[in-house]
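Following up on my earlier message about 2-acetamido-2-deoxy-beta-D-glucopyranose. Here are the inputs again, as you asked, copied directly from the submission form:
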Amino acid sequence: MYENSVRLAACVVLLCFVLPTAVYTTDGRLVRHVEDLSQEFNSLKIEYLNMLRKIEKLDVTLATQDEALQDTWFKMGRLEEKVDRQTSELQETKATIKEQKARIDYLEEVENTRRLMHYGNGGGFTRSKPMRLHRPEKRTNVMREVVKKQNTGNVAFSATRTSPLLGDSSEAQNITFDLAFVNEGDDFDLDTGIFTCEVEGTYYFSFTMRSYDAKHIGVILMKGNEGVVSMATDADDRSVMQTQSVMLTLSVGDLIYLRLTPSEDFAIYGNSFNYITFNSFLVFA
Ligand SMILES: *[C@@H]1O[C@H](CO)[C@@H](O)[C@H](O)[C@H]1NC(C)=O
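Thanks, got it. Here's what our run produced:
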């Protein structure tokens, strides 16, 4: 482009200044020279116009390629979005599968426990088949829903403790349990000895204790931080057994558990013959 402009300028100079001079000369060679220059000027002009056309074409090609590039970028963006969407869908599916697996595990656990309970009822009580209930590690919301549905009108537990518990003057101990004959609804926690109400209603509770030689029995059935009913015996060498019972109307979230009097003079006795029991069932919701 630049080169052509220079040539064009040179021709203009020639035509405007050199040509008039040549015209006034009578020399025929000069006249021919001017004609040659004029021809060169015309061919340069054509070349220049051709180049202009080529540049225009190149411009069009460039614009088309630009468009194609933008289109590709756009498509890439859409593909990235699609990949992102599918990745998050995959994660959701994985989470759902995990939750459902936990739910299946839990239901299997419940089913196994039911089968064990059935075995226990049919064949009478056998020491060789302890009916230990394993609580599931953690309840998901879905599992809670399932449990709640199962719970409606169907809550009962019956647990036993197979070892003694000696009073401790430094703290009031909660009586914990290690075997569940029944734990319908799974609202009783053996490890803490706490029943957590998940279905509002009126419940029947009973507990039975055997005395420890030369110690008093002192057990209180607690609702939250408050004692509800108590059991007491005097210390004696002769072992005694006592049962206490009560009915309570509970709200969701109420905690019921048994507390041993915090003193070294108190204790309860238990062994594998299952003297110590704690039982409850929903009378009506
Ligand atoms: C007994 O259970 C109650 C209710 O959950 C709790 O507040 C208390 O700390 C427990 N006592 C002991 C000694 O763990």
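One observation from looking it over: The domain at 155-284 is CATH 2.60.120.40 (Jelly Rolls). Hope that helps, and feel free to reply on this thread.
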